[in-house]
Amino acid sequence: PMTDVVVIVSVVILIGLFSMQHYGTDKVSWLFAPIVFVWFILIGVLGAVNIYTYDRSVLKAFNPIYVYHYFKRGKTSWASLGGIMLSITGTEALFADLSYFPVQAIQIAFTTVVFPCLLLQYTGQAAYIATHKDKVSHSFYFSLPERILWPAFVVATAAAIVSSQATISATYSIIKQALAVGCFPRVKIIHTSKKYLGQIYSPDINWILMVLCIAVTAGFKNQSQIANAYGTAVIMVMLVTTFLMIPIMLLVWRSHWALVVLFTVLSLAVEIPYLTAVMKKIDQGGWVPLVFAAAILLIMYVWHYGTLKRYEFEMHSKVSMAWILGLGPSLGLVRVPGIGLVYTELASGVPHIFSHFITNLPAIHSTLVFVCVKYLPVYTVPLDERFLVKRIGPKNFHMFRCVARYGYKDIHKKDDDFEKMLFSSLLLFIRLESMMEEYSDSDEYSALDQQELIDEARSDARSAADLSYASRDSIVPVRSPNRPGAMSSAQTTTATLGFETVGDEVAFLNSCKDAGVVHILGNTVIRARRDSGPLKKLAIDYLYAFLRKICRENSAIFNVPHESLLNVGQVFYV
């Protein structure tokens, strides 16, 4: 049957489209604008020809009085709103396009090309149907001249592929925004373009989306059911957008309350009749987007709840500085050679993972750096501003905090660059700290002198880091004090008593780095309390645990080499 052929062709096109996503849209995006432009000009011209050829009286439809007469007929007119809704589908994609184009460009394209051509085409189809009442189904293709039937079919298919690509790209963008606010499980995000920020690709989401699209296409096999599902999704998008605009107008734009009320009333006056008409077709395919939305909402809510509880646990269980100072320079343990990079989500304070670690292990590295990786909503963070370093406790504790900041286009690579830049930042901080202490009592110390000293210290730190890393080929494992390559007794004494000069501390850090670098990651597992309700146990112990299991681990996100990775687990009950 013809329906089966259409379904098979659609599935093949979908598989091909999703299979090419990893190449990035920048490779073929130069074709998108010409294809869409040709499509709109084609339907606009054909609509104008149909109006002139068949029935020019359809232009009376632009008179608003006919809207009143149409709805005066009764329930049948109201029920037809569900089908009329399909004529404005696609307008919701304008919001997704804001990620790629300026607002003015979208406004110009919509008012000068899209809107006029759609009006001409719909009016032209009405003129054709007025004289061919037996060809309502597929009236667009029936109204085409036979000579351009197949060229128009090819252009229509290409335009459908372009619109599908826009929907796929918009899905990636929404997932990435949800990741940024901690409302979606961690998935891999790849930037496919060096020029355009919004062009991204997520392999995990790509294949899931492909399976769902094929399931809908092959499962329905009915154009009207897919149209009902599409119409339900569009009206829900419009309603959500309207309700989200209210707090934006009040809190962000500071609009007058009367303007907010006027906007809300006018928007709902249009959307609510469409919604009531679409609700009648929920059992005819409209249930699909509602089920998908409910499932995604549940996943986002459970993930956000679990992530928030984990963060609150880390915030409330931070180790106090008084407790650390009470441990002494050795932290109450054996300080073995090496640098320990302790990853944490906290930008301030010492995380609970540290006390959990030293409670269960009898040794800790000679130098500890608490690393907090933050991804900022900016294009890129300059290398000179990427690392913010601060000392924790006295100098002879050898504890630092480092906040590593990355932008959209910055990539945290699995190589020595991260360790090299971090080590260079540590050396720079030590030199600047010494300079600031030296000149802190001088009133004649100008901003220009300060900047010159900073530049000089940065140059010295880079040179020291480059020289140090040039002397080794790879990261070596941490050596215990009894093995070759361990610190000498003099160095250990220096680690305990502190440093008399900056050079002593720099030499100490170099010896620690040569001993090895270990990445320590916390793995906080949350569980529901025994007295929790069944819904909470189901959400935390099963759904959230399942999402944590299938999503990407922190070691993969931070690109930590497995040969120097140490996971520290702890359980937290909520």
From TrEMBL:
Compartments where located: Membrane
Membrane topology: Multi-pass membrane protein
Transmembrane stretches, start-end: 6-23, 30-52, 78-96, 108-128, 148-175, 196-220, 226-250, 257-275, 287-308, 320-343, 363-381
Domain K+ potassium transporter integral membrane: 3-324
Methyltransferase found in the keyword field: no
Keywords from the named record: Ion transport, Membrane, Potassium, Potassium transport, Transmembrane, Transmembrane helix, Transport
UniProt-listed InterPro entries: K+_transporter (IPR003855), K_trans_C (IPR053952), K_trans_N (IPR053951)
A GO cellular-component term linked to this record: membrane
Every K+ potassium transporter C-terminal domain range: 337-571
A molecular-function term among this protein's GO annotations: potassium ion transmembrane transporter activity
UniProt keyword annotation of Lipid biosynthesis present: no
NCBIfam families: kup
Family: Belongs to the HAK/KUP transporter (TC 2.A.72.3) family.
Its biological purpose: Potassium transporter.
Name of the protein described by the UniProt record: Potassium transporter
Organism: Aegilops tauschii subsp. strangulata (Goatgrass)
